[in-house]
Every structure is written in C-alpha cells, then in structure tokens.
Amino acid sequence: NSLLLINRVLSFGYPVSMGVDLVRQLRARPQPPRMLLISDQADAQRQAEEAGAAPFRPSANSGSLIGVSRG
What we know:
By secondary structure, the chain is an alpha+beta fold. It has helices spanning 19-27, 43-50; strands at 4-7, 35-39, 53-54, 65-69. 24% of the residues lie in helices and 23% in strands.
C-alpha cells in the first residue's frame, strides 16, 4: 500500500496551491490513494477532515497535525 504525503502549502508546478485542494481532487477519483496531509497549523486538521481526511490525533510529543485519508 502506497502512502502519499501532501504539504498544506504546495510549491509552484502543481495544479493547485493548497494541499487540501489536492486532497479533494484526488479523493474524487474512483480509487483515491491513501494520503497524509501534513501541517504545523492548528486549522489544518479541520480542513483535512472537511476535504475527506480521517481524523488523526497527534501524540503528546508531536507538534504538527496530520490528517489521514480514508481512501
């Protein structure tokens, strides 16, 4: 099983500039890949869940929030 890591903000060269938008596009495919949306901002978890990512609760030692896709 592959796992696609996606930053919250994407560099130029992508069709979208935000990772959440890429998650939405990929989730719309018939067989979306498994994805992690990675961010150090608190609102990233909410945005990832709204985009179709499953909730993930970081450990006490982790400073970042990560959403795991349901795909």
